[in-house]
Amino acid sequence: MKKHLSRLLAALLAMALLTAPACALTVPQALELLEENYYYGIPGAAYEARTLDELIQILGDPYTDYMSAEEYALFLELVEDTVDMVGVGVEILYTEDGILIKDVLSGGSAQEAGLRGGDLIVAVDGVPCVPAGEEDRLLLLGEEGTKVTLTVLRDGQARDYGLTRRAVYIPNTQISLLEGGVGYVDCNSFGLDTDELLAQGLEQYDAQVDFWVLDLRGNAGGYVDSALEVTAALNGPGRYLYFEEAGGQVAGYACRSAALTQKPLILLLDGESASASELVASSIRDTDRGVLVGGRTYGKGVAQSALDESSDPDYFDGDCLKVTTARFYAAGGTTTDRIGVIPTLLVDEGYAEAVAAALTGGSEDTSQLCVMPGSQPFYVDPDASADVLAQLLEAVPPQTPVFFRSQGVFGQCTPAQAAQRLGLDFDSRWFSDVADSRYDFAIDAMGTYRLLSGTEPGLFSPKERLTRAQLCVMMARVLNAADRGPSRFDDVAQDAWYASGVNAMAALGLVDGVGDGRFDPEGTLTQEEFLTIMGRTARYLSFALDGYGQAVEDAGDDLPPDMAADLAPYSDWARSGAAVLAWGLEDAMGGSGDLLYASLERIDPSAPILREEAAAGMYALLAGLDILP
User: Could you tell me the pTM of the whole model?
Assistant: First the structure.
């Protein structure tokens, strides 16, 4: 890396762009720094920019930006995501019955007075706060050293507590011990001390814990080295990060720190989990260390360096140019860029925490239901609500075993069978018309992760042919990509149902037109066209497969005789894609098997591809790269 790793931010990527009315950095200086550091190519128009704002707009990269000294200071505060406030030192929830104390913060006067989680504040300085709202919270805050009297209800008895407001520090990572032997880590960002805070919590509670839950919901990122140390604390030493800089040079970064826990692990994710959070989540996924529960993550796989006075003192005085300098890949060598991290159990928004509680709340002796989303059996809480159980079972893909206790013995069943026995209102994500397809497993797995849409509710129509437009829509959904700008092809109307998918795939370089500015969206897709697109997708997702595909292209007619013979029926333009899928996993990544839905000799390159074959091919790629279980 050109700059020290600790200055590299994979951070806060959902932030709105900051604009600076006055810039200390000049356009020529910015271009010089971009030429040295920028991951993407610099457009020619950038050299005609008259202002820094104009230059940033021409680049079109949402993560590259100039910040004034004030904006940069605020940015760093957001990365740290710590809070200093003056109050009594409690975490609260508003309820109809008053202010519920969720937790008592270390160092606050509430802790000294003996208040504890579960206490209910019903009045502040004699002013009732039933029902509670934001205006009541303001009564708890005030100038440092001032007094406040809280009327607290505990076990049906009211008591007044005289407290002194003081400055309280709320860290970006908080660890607590929940009922039932569950350790809970609430990590809001990866600041400079996040790994130390986690280590302290693990050392304090691990002996009392049966499961750890790491909550990365809403965590938009932070410092890369902090995220790496967090991963090592949960997983032990290993290589969890690869950076690809401009020009394709890839460097790996390893952690040597020992694991601080061996207990089963659940990660909670959502659409705002981004960047460094995705690095941690995908590395836990790639090493089978834990189960991921929640929503698909944001999909940011590029990292930024903060160029400031510490790295370039001749250019900056408190201000900063934040520049995209690399694309990053997690432990398995795949990127999270656009595609994000798809949880092991994909549940609807708002259910992640409840599903995790259900997974950790039962035992072999008390539970009726057991699921194994990894190597660890999870005995489901027998008291979990019906809607939570339904969410859990709807998220179970066909490759995850489900067991139901009948007459004292656990027997394997499908999620639908378990839901029926529990009397649940169950909305299966599996398709009802694929049982006779040889690819039913792959189709239902893709359906469970909401990566496929059917032709009608519950139906997939596996034997139908696939058009070029239909595949683009499918693949755009898989890659979480969209492009609603002007159409790239004359025969793709901007308001067509497939326009966003076609344009997104074209923008990524994964599909081509047929010539003369046309795409032929209704044209039937051939097998070799499909393999070409999937091979390009494999290269987009994996730096090792990208290198392998490039080597095949460079070899040209000098391929080994057995490879050349197998590829002979394919058009020249399709051979590298077919090779990546057939041999890349083993030759480039040391894996086993391939990324095809059928062997090369069974595929007729010019034949049309069917919907079931396309679904199976997509699943083979995602599962082969460990993006899906």
Answer: 0.83
